[in-house]
Structure formats: C-alpha cells, structure tokens
Write a structure and sequence with these properties.
318 residues; three-stranded antiparallel sheet; alpha+beta; 13 strands
Length: 318
C-alpha cells in the first residue's frame, strides 16, 4: 500500500549548512492515521509523538515523513498531459506501475489555463484506500502469500470539490504576458504551484496542518507568566572594551571591560519570590492606608460630636 510513497526519499536539516538526515520509510498505518492528527513539530526528530487519535510511530521523524506524504498527495501536481502512466511489466524490468514524462507534451497556448485547477493533474502517490482483503487472505502451508496485483499509480484530475480549494492568479500587475502564473492552496496555506513556458514547480512552506478557519489561544499558566530564574550559569552582560584616543583620533589604549558580578548574589531571590514579596508589600501598604482612613473618619466623627455637645450646653445657659 505504501510502495509508491517509499520510492521517494526525503532528507531534512535544522538550518542551512547543517548535516542532512534521511527520514524513515512510511508505513500503511501511518498514512491512514496522519490526516486525523494535528500538532506542531518541535524540531527534534527523536521526540515522541503524543496526539489524539494516537499516531502509530515512535518518533517525530516518522510523523514528519507521513505528513509530507499527506501534503504531497493534495498539493503536488503537474500540467495536464505532462506525465503519462507506465503499466507494470516485470519482464521489462518494471515490477510496479509508474509514471514518466511524455516527450510529446506541449503547454496550452493560453497560460491562464494553468491558473485554474482544471489545467493541472495530480501525479503524486495518493493516500491508499483501506484494503479489501478478506479473513481468508493468509499464507499457504509453505508460508507463501497469495499474489496480488501491483498497486495502481493513477494520474488523476482534480475533483470539483478539490478545485474550489485553489486560488490562481498572475504574479505581476504589469507585463502579464511575461509573468508566471501561480496557484495558492487554501487547504494547506503555503502550498504554491508556479508555471511559465514549459517549466513548473511545486513549493510548500508552512506548519504542515490543514486550514480549519479556527483560532486557538493556549491558556497561560504561572510557569509561563513568571518563569524562575536559572542559577546554574552566571549572568553575563556584553560590555564593549573602553577605547582611549588621543587628540588626533588615534587609539592609544584599549581597556578590557570589568568582569560582571556573579548572578544571583547571595541573598538574592528568584523572580517568583520577588513577585510574592511585592504582592505582600502592596497588601500591607493597602492595610495601613485602610487603618489611616478609618482613624481619620473616627476623629472627624468625635470632633463633630464634641462640637455638637458644646453648642447644646451654651443654649441651655442662655
């Protein structure tokens, strides 16, 4: 089921100039389940993959390889008629169905044909359908499995529903006659098909997930808002050396920067502890203000009562 996918070998690297690492072959189970998984890659090919539903793989390298197969089956296309199907012929050295360029292909006279999905066909191996083998499909007494037909490798046109997932246009406002045409995928943002003359290319730059038109904001926790300060390494600040020049602007002396003090010093607290102390300090200040306000109101009430008492005694004496 995955024989055509494993005819392609992919290599990845972390940055330009880094060593290339070959991704493992993809399995049928991984091709079946990768479309149901949605997660971001960490960049560590050996990292485990935790997802729901579970992905049948042991590392992120396997998930990445299956993800490439999924994206390629939806976004890798060629102009209609560029490739032709080659049926399997074991006697001629072709044990499996395959494709090859058609030497007699010529592009359409109107290049805007290739700004629409109808001008393109898919030639990348599709995601295989579930097999239809029954329970009686098993090896014989000698351990030999029954012969099966080679997996088809069909060049297939875009269906009407898939055609609505592409947006085509020319790549220039002026001199459109000389400008390439391009199609952008709506399903997988970052997938682009470009065509000019007899040349075409397929490019994808993205996060590897489908467009769902839904936004997600992760909930922040205390560790993300106030991360603790690491005390394992000294805190370093880059300080440029001091340059001494004479009246003519010539450098006469270069003084090295003074070494930075170690961080944290003895008695210093972590950022979280400082925040807790700051919160307690603000609370205590608020309590003192409340007490002062209550004392002020009580003094005003006592003064008003005393003034009222003196006014009553004066009225009785008169």
């Amino acid at each position: 089921k995955s024989i055509h996918h494993n005819k392609l070998k992919y290599y990845v690297c972390h940055y330009p100039g880094a060593p290339w690492v070959a991704l493992p072959n993809v399995t049928y189970d991984q091709l079946e389940s990768v479309e149901s998984c949605k997660k971001l890659l960490t960049g560590d090919l050996k990292a485990p993959v935790s997802s729901y539903p579970p992905f049948p793989g042991n590392s992120e390298a396997e998930y990445l390889r299956a993800r490439i197969a999924l994206i390629g089956s939806h976004t890798v296309m060629s102009p209609a008629g560029y490739f032709k199907e080659v049926p399997a012929d074991p006697d001629a050295g072709h044990p499996d169905n395959s494709i090859q360029p058609d030497g007699g292909w010529a592009p359409d006279g109107d290049k805007m044909t290739y700004s629409k999905p109808a001008g393109w066909v898919k030639h990348y191996p599709p995601i295989p359908e579930p097999d239809g083998f029954g329970d009686d499909f098993a090896p014989d007494e000698d351990g030999v499995w029954p012969a099966i037909d080679p997996e088809p490798y069909n060049i297939r046109p875009n269906e009407e529903a898939e055609a609505e997932q592409w947006m085509g246009k020319t790549t220039a406002v002026q001199y459109k006659a000389m400008a390439p045409v391009a199609m952008h995928s709506i399903t997988f943002p970052g997938a682009v098909l470009a065509f000019k003359g007899k040349q075409f290319c397929c490019i994808y730059v993205g996060f590897g997930n489908r467009e769902t038109n839904m936004t997600y904001t992760p909930q922040l926790n205390t560790a993300m808002i106030m991360p603790p300060v690491s005390t394992d390494e000294p805190y370093k600040v880059h300080v440029p050396p001091t340059v001494v020049k004479d009246e003519e602007g010539n450098i006469t002396e270069t003084l090295p920067p003074e070494p930075s003090p170690p961080y944290p010093e003895e008695g210093w607290k972590h950022y979280n502890d400082e925040q807790m102390d700051l919160r307690d300090k603000m609370y205590l200040e608020w309590v003192e203000l409340q007490k002062a306000e209550e004392a002020r109101k009580k003094a005003e009430e006592e003064a008003a009562a005393a003034a009222a008492a003196e006014g009553g005694e004066g009225a009785e004496g008169a």
